[in-house]
Task: structure prediction
Amino acid sequence: MPEHIVPMLARLSTLPGNEDDWGFEVKWDGIRAILYSGNRKGDITLENRNLRDITFKYPELHPLDGLNAVVDGEIVALDEKGRPSFERLQARMHLSTVPAVRVRMDDVPVRFMAFDLIWHDGRDLTDLPYTERRAALEALDLNGDCWQTPGWRRGDGSALLDAARAQALEGVMAKRLESPYCPGKRTKHWLKIKVKQNQEFVVGGWQPGEGRRENTIGSLLLGYFDDAAFRYAGKVGTGFKEPDLAMLIKELKARRRTSSPFAPPPAPPRGVMFAEPELVAEIEFTEWTREGILRNPAYKGLRDDKPAQTVVREVPT
Result:
């Protein structure tokens, strides 16, 4: 069985021209994870995109008797309408002890959405086309209370995107039918088409709050990497919950620095506190301004599954 596989990545895009050459799936708003299952007891190992072992955080996903495979998928927490919620998943993804996980399991259950099969019973499947890997995955019948193998459709991505928009989902994935699985690579064979604009940004500092937020955070300073330069992308001051503010101020104070990490232009406002650009946050927004600043950004949560240095401005291909 292979070890420490970095997931295959997708490019931000619009719908491809010839939809019949592509398979379309729902884009799940959660945490990407590679699942390794290889013994008779059904024990598994889960690794995120940083190759960090996150198995202990999701004990409800463990029992998979008899499965000898490496599976790519997404860990999601569903809201009251059955839709994946990244904000809801925050209550599980940042827990650091087994007792804390046990306390939150009933309140915030999770599910593993399986969408690709990398290895099975001693056979490397990465060179097989997407359609064959998908057929092999579906034959495993990974479905249950905590497991699901969502369906996909050949062509007609426009209809699936309309359905995702109507149900307030994140978007759809388009995967070329004959494409192999390329670990760690962002290729033209996998595309992500989003209903809303959102992506990861790196936090480079904060602006102190006013009123009830006087001793905490008013807004976060956001940026992204452009080669070696760290570019300012604006600030976000909405979307926070009280636990978010407490966690963020603690993490940012531990990373505080005296000088700005941002490379001009544009420059962040005056009177702010700077931090080492290490924390990665998920941000939803309406558009970019001509000056390269986010319009109407909203904070969705911190991510611990993506290195800060890999965060760039996503431009649709």
User: Anything to note?
Assistant: The longest strand covers residues 273-285. The chain has five helices and 19 strands. The two ends are 35 Å apart (CA to CA). The mean pLDDT is 92.
